Amino acid sequence: MQNSFQDNAARTAMALPGRVLLIDNSRAYATIVSSAIADRLGIEVSVADSLASARQLVEQWGDQILLVLSGLVLPDADEASVVHYFTHRRIPLVVVTGVFDHATRERILAQPVIDYVLKDNPSSVDYLVWLVQRISRNRALTALVIDDSNFYRGLIGSLLKLYGFAVLEAADGEAGLELIKANPQLSLVICDFELPGISGIQVVRRIRGKYARDRLAVIGVSASESVRGPISAQFIKSGANDFLHKPFLPEELFCRVAQNVENLENIASLRHMATTDPLTGLRNRRSFFDTAQRRFQALGSQSRSLAVAMMDIDHFKKVNDGHGHDCGDAVLVGVSRLLAASLRDDDLVARFGGEEFCVLFPDLDESKARKICETLRNAIESTTITFGDAVIPVTISIGLCSDRRDSLHGMLTQADQALYRAKAAGRNRVMTA
User: Fold this and answer.
1) Number of domains observed in the structure of the chain
2) Is 186 in the same domain as 246?
3) pLDDT over 50 at 223, yes or no
4) What is the distance between the alpha carbons of residues 334 and 281, in angstroms, rounded to a whole number?
């Protein structure tokens, strides 16, 4: 079973929402940081040099402010005033400081701030950029906290909200599993060991029965050790991605949460690259066969109908030769968008290569599948692709097979032969096997 983490990752990779407020006395440092954030992330940065000017920007931008990067001592405000102003308005705050010692660290982390960054660290700008990106991406994610302790459940939940997550909470394992079932968009579960009813270990095992490690991150937490061995090892062997011992520092929780969520994002990104045609955004040939074969077997075992269609853009070589490959790419993208918009959610569509596409239609007989193909053919014929000064008319030929064979390959072969006949008969038509 899959959750929507890959969809979340893709969405946040396309556009990071919000605006950053940077408060710093050093104009040079502010310029370096704001330029880095804007250039690398595409996020606008508003710069202030005092709490008064920051207040004006907060009034101007309001809920659009994603994060505040600020020193704790400003020309017109002390540390307490800075922290109170932003936390009172529920605006996440990251402390940027040039002075640091153990006492300062303890004092900063005792307050409701996300993190602290040392100015004199050579990698501080890179870390700030990463931090802004991380908090921004967290806003698309949902986490679940399962803990019977009101204190720890509330603490972890409040910290996750501070980090940008939407948060769900459960006081026992069964309630947590029900929330997981009802919320497939979950990206992260933080689960205590000692729970009423089933233990945290049992919860993790049941989670892993449906969700793989690379689909849903699970962090086990506990304040105790077991006579059967370290609880951390039990959690990891049962399927948890990580473990955190109570009591913990908020700083450590943030690092572990960020690390585990980023692992999921990296895997989702690699999976997307491996299964998606980079030009059109449709599935690629390999992904189509992996998924279509499972669909073929499942539909067959339930005696349900299906049809497959092979499609080819007519005279595509003339487009490339006459207008260039960039124009050809524009035609491919335009046709792909029409395909994606015209087909049902359950239909499986892919770019097979070049100007060829393939569609699997579940639960359709020949007449219904042909009707969809004719509608699609008409839609493409009625569309022109504009590229520069050129207006390109586009048509498509389609071969359709609804006669179930012993294999998916057999049906695709029949559809391909029907496509060949459609081309030979004059193109811009649908032929059935």
Assistant:
1) 3
2) yes
3) yes
4) 11
Q: Give pLDDT, residue 10.
A: 46
**By the 8 A CB rule, do 68 and 21 touch?**
yes
Alpha carbons 131 and 394: distance in angstroms, whole number: 46
Q: Above 70 in pLDDT, residue 200?
A: yes
**Residue range 262-270: average pLDDT?**
96
Please tell me whether residues 299 and 227 are part of one structural domain: no
At residue 351, the 3 state secondary structure works out as strand
Peptide bond into 247 cis (omega under 30): yes
Residue that is written with structure tokens 């921004």 in the block: 136
Kindly give the pairing relationship between strand 142-146 and strand 186-192: parallel
Q: How far is CA 371 from CA 296, 299, 308, in A?
A: 21, 21, 13
298 and 424 part of one domain = yes
Tell me the pairing of strands 242-245 and 348-353. Answer: unpaired
57-62 CB contacts, 8 Å cutoff, 24+ apart: 57/21, 58/21, 58/89, 58/91, 61/19, 61/21
Whole-number Å distance between alpha carbons of 87 and 22? 15
Full domain range(s) for residue 174: 140-275
Distance of CA 383 to the CA centre of its chain: 32
DSSP 349: E
CA–CA distance, 61 with 45 (Å, rounded to integer): 11
Q: pLDDT value at position 17?
A: 63
Q: What is the pLDDT of residues 78-102, one digit of tens each?
A: 888 999 999 889 899 999 988 778 8
Record the pTM: 0.82
Which comes out higher in pLDDT, residue 62 or 99? 62
From the CB of residue 255, how many other CB atoms can be counted at a distance below 10 Å? 13
Distance of CA 127 to the CA centre of its chain: 22
Given a cut of 70, whether residue 120 has pLDDT beyond it is: yes
